[in-house]
Amino acid sequence: MNTAQFTPAGTMTAEDLGRIHLIGVGGVGMSGLARLFLTRGLPVSGSELREWPSLAGLRALGGTVHMSHEASNLDGVDTVVYSSAIPQDHLEMVEARRRGLRVLHRSEALAAAMTGRRTVAVAGTHGKTTTTSMVTMVLQQAGVDPSFVIGGEISEVGSGAHHGTGEHFVVEADESDRSFLIYRPYVSIVTNIEADHLNTYGDLANLEAAFAEFARLTDPEGFIITCADDAGGRRLAETLRAEGRRVWTYGEAPDADLRLSEMASSARGVRYLAEIDGRSLGEIRLPVPGRHMGLNSASAVLTAYLLGLPVEAAEAALAAFPGVRRRFERKGVADDVLVYDEYAYHPTSMTLALQTLREVAGEGRLIVVFQPYRLYRTRDLQAEIAAALGIADELVLLEVFGPGELRQPGEGSAALLAAVPLPADRKVFVDSWEAAPVEVARRARPGDVVVTMGAPPISLMGDQLLDALLARTGAGVPALGTAVGPDGAATAAG
Predict the structure, then answer these.
(1) What is the SS3 assignment for 363?
(2) Residues marked as catalytic
(3) Which pLDDT value is given to residue 1?
(4) Are strands 279-286 and 269-276 parallel, antiparallel or unpaired?
C-alpha cells in the first residue's frame, strides 16, 4: 500500500521557492503548475523527454525546457518539484538531494502557491477536472478573478492554470497518493467516492476514511459540499454532520440541500431546475450532454450560492461552458464519422460517458478505442470495466498503459477482452498503436461515433483516426507526424 507522506501546508509562499525546476514538466498537472508560477513572475525551468503540446506555451511565458534529464539542468536551481510518477532514484532527484536543494512533491509546491488565499478544493473519484473547471468559470463570471490549477485544460481557453488577482484559489485535489491531505481548504467539494486507487488505500473503507480526513481539514468558517446522489458522498455527509460540521449537499435526492428536478439530457446539452431552501434558482442549462455533467455543475452553483456570489453568474457561466479537453472532447468528423476523446478509465465514469455518447450517436453505432490505465485497476475492476465497455457496439482494445508496473501472468488486456460482453466479431485486441486507426477505418460506417478513451497517451490518437477515415475516401492521406505508442514511447505515425 502506498503510504507516502507529504508536508502539510504552512506559511511558505511560492516566492520562497526561488528558482523552480519541475521534473516531467510536460504532463498536464506539472505543466499547469509551471504555468501558474510563470504567470506569477517566478523563474521556472523543467525537463522532459518528449515534445508535449503544453511546452510551447511554457516557453512563450519565459520558461526554460530541457529536452533531456541531466544533472546540469539543476544549475542555479533552488527548488526541485516532482510528481508521484517520478521515481526516487531518478537522476535529477538524486542530484537534487546531493546538492542539498529543496525537493517538493507537486502538491507541496502547489500548497505554497495557495498560501494566503481562500482555497476551493475539488476532490472525488471522478468528475474532479470538469467540476474544478466549472467552479473556476463561475467565479470568473462573477468577476472575482480566481487563481486556479486544474488537471486539464478548459476547451477554447487552452489553459489549466492562471494566477488571478482575487482572494480565491480553485484547485483539483488528487486523492490517488494521499497528497490532497496537505491542503487546508476554505471550501471542500467531494463529487463522489468509489473504489479506486486501492494500491494506495487497500480497500474502500480506507479510501472513505481519507476523504473524511480531507473534509475535516476544511476551515471552520468555510463549508463542505458533497453529492447526495452518491452513496459514498451521502455517507461522508452523515459522518461529518454528526460531528457538527457544516455540510451542504446537491443532487436529485429529495433531501438534497440544492435540489435538482426535471433533469433532461440530449445531444444538445443538459438542463434542470434548481431549488434551495424553498427558493427557486431557475433553470440551469449546459451545452454539453450528460446527467453527470448536470451534477457536476450543481456543485458549482452551490459553491457560488454559499460564497454569496450572484447565482445569475453561475447560470451564465454554465450556459457557455465549453467543456474540458479530454472530457467529451469533439476531435472532428471524417467520412461522416464523428470522433471524440474522453479521459474516463474508471468504470463508473466510463459508463456515464458511454451512455452520453449513445445519445449523441442516435441511430449510428458507437465504436470505442480503449487503452486501460494501470494494471492494478484493470485487474481489480475487470468485471466493472468490461461491463462498461459492453455498452459499445464495437471495441478496439489496446494493451494496458501502466508505466513502472510489472505484468503478471493472466493480467492485461487479453483477460479484459475476454470479459467484455460483446460477440467475438465486434471486439478486437490490437497489439500496436499503428494498428488501431486501421482497425477503426475498417469497422466504422457513416453515421457512427468513435471515441478514444482511457489512459493519457490515447488522447494523441484522434488526429490519426481522422486521417485514416479520410484516407479511405480518397480525399486525403494520413498526415505524417509523431505519436505516442501504447507503452508511452514515441513511434512514427502515418
Answers:
(1) coil
(2) 128-129, 172
(3) 35
(4) antiparallel
For the four alpha carbons of 357, 192, 258 and 173, in that order, the dihedral sign comes to: negative
Assess whether 334 and 380 both reside in one domain.
yes
> Which amino acid type is present at position 211?
F
Q: What is the pLDDT of residue 100?
A: 96
Rounded Cα distance, 381 and 376, in Å: 8
User: How far is residue 318's CA from residue 96's CA, in Å, rounded to a whole number?
Assistant: 44
**For the chain, which residues score pLDDT lower than 70?**
1-10, 151-159, 195, 197-200, 323-328, 474-494
* CATH at 256: 3.40.1190.10
CA-to-CA distance for 176 and 200, rounded, in angstroms? Answer: 7
- Phi/psi for 472 (5° steps) reads -70, -15
User: Do 153 and 299 reside in the same domain of the chain?
Assistant: yes
* CATH code (residue 425): 3.90.190.20
pLDDT of residue 329: 79
User: Are the CB atoms for 119 and 184 separated by under 8 Å?
Assistant: yes
Rounded CA-CA distance 69/38 in Å is 21
Q: How far apart are CA 207 and CA 380, in angstroms?
A: 15
Rounded to whole angstroms, how far apart are CA atoms 379 and 369? 19
Instruction: List the domain range (segments joined by +) for residue 232.
Output: 117-319
Per-residue pLDDT tens over the stretch 64-83: 999 999 999 999 999 999 98
SS3 6: coil
Count of structural domains within the chain: 3
Residues 488 and 348 in one domain: yes
β-strands 329-334, 337-342 pairing: antiparallel
Give the residue from 290, 319, 348 where a domain finishes: 319
Q: Report the CATH number at residue 33.
A: 3.40.50.720
Q: Which residue has the cell 525546476?
A: 21
Residues 122 and 221 in one domain: yes
Three-class secondary structure of residue 56 per DSSP: helix
Tell me the pairing of strands 64-66 and 147-154. Answer: unpaired
* Separation between Cα atoms, residue 287 and residue 120, nearest integer Å: 24
